[in-house]
Specification:
Elements (H helix, E strand, L loop, with lengths): L1 H14 L22 E8 L3 H8 L9 H9 L4 E5 L1 H6 L1 H8 L4 E5 L19 H19 L5 E2 L8 H9 L3 E2 L4 E2 L8 H11 L5 E5 L8 H14 L3 E2 L2 H6 L2
Parallel strand pairs: 1-2, 1-7, 1-8, 2-3, 4-5, 6-7
The structure holds zinc ion (ZN).
């Protein structure tokens, strides 16, 4: 598995990703079919060097919001987690626990959450030459720790240039963002998150939330009402893979 990721990566280097002649330009997927009432809950697990410092100094106790997956399991709700490689390395047991649950799918959210296209909400800069290595490092970390090799990639902050999306495609990944921003980042009021999601979700929606707690403190508080509310509106929950491969 790791060998396969490496092969794809080396092939992409040989073919020259940055500045290569435009092939078919891949789009960024933001939703599935609007014809069926399936929706995907997605949870980004961010980790940056700054977040690691906050853990080490005990300024923050944990960036693993265990309650999120407890609620998903209690309600038998499928979901997709986008791991940063650094998060999986910080919480290997949790990463495995999520990856090995058939309810859940595990995908890639970069190694340490830089902003691939700037400006990007204050996220750290990354040079063009470091981008492929960052994505590959995350792929390898997630594969090594969980035994699952991600197929989908989500850019931190959703910030990406056309070249970045092509780079990720060269590495064998499809870019998946969202069409519903839950707004759980920086929002202490769970009711605001619930109202936003129930208002904006449509057939085929991909809903972005966060499973690292910290700056997204009320995700788990909002989750039961989001799940119940969307079910009451006739929506069915699926993973991103199921949403995008549904016929
Ligand atoms: Zn993120």
């Amino acid at each position: 598995m790791i060998r396969r990721v490496l092969r794809v990566f080396l092939a992409s280097l040989l073919s020259g990703t940055a500045g290569a002649a435009p092939l078919s330009v891949p789009g960024i997927i933001t939703h599935g079919s609007r014809a069926a009432p399936s929706v995907a809950l997605t949870f980004d697990a961010d980790m940056t060097p700054g977040m690691q410092r906050a853990l080490k100094s005990s300024k923050v106790l944990s960036y693993d919001n265990v309650a999120v997956r407890q609620i998903l399991r209690l309600t038998r709700t499928p979901a997709t987690f986008f791991f940063t490689g650094m998060w999986a390395e910080t919480y290997p047991q949790s990463a495995r626990d999520i990856a090995h649950d058939p309810l859940f799918e595990v995908e890639d959210h970069s190694y340490d959450h830089p902003g691939f296209a700037q400006p990007c909400y204050g996220l750290a800069n990354i040079t063009d030459r470091d981008k492929a290595a960052n994505v590959l490092r995350s792929q390898l970390a997630v594969a090594r720790i969980t035994g699952r090799t991600p197929r989908y990639f989500r850019f931190p902050g959703g910030c990406a240039s056309l070249e970045d999306v092509q780079l990720v495609q060269h590495l064998g990944l499809t870019t998946v963002h969202w069409d519903v921003i839950s707004g759980d980042a920086g929002q202490p009021d769970a009711q605001v998150i619930v109202r936003t999601v129930l208002r904006d979700t449509r057939n085929g929606s991909i809903i972005v939330m966060h499973s690292h707690g910290g700056r997204a403190p009320s995700t788990a508080l909002a989750l039961p009402a989001i799940i119940a509310g969307l079910k009451a509106r006739g929506f069915t929950f699926v993973t991103v893979e199921q949403l995008l491969t549904a016929r």
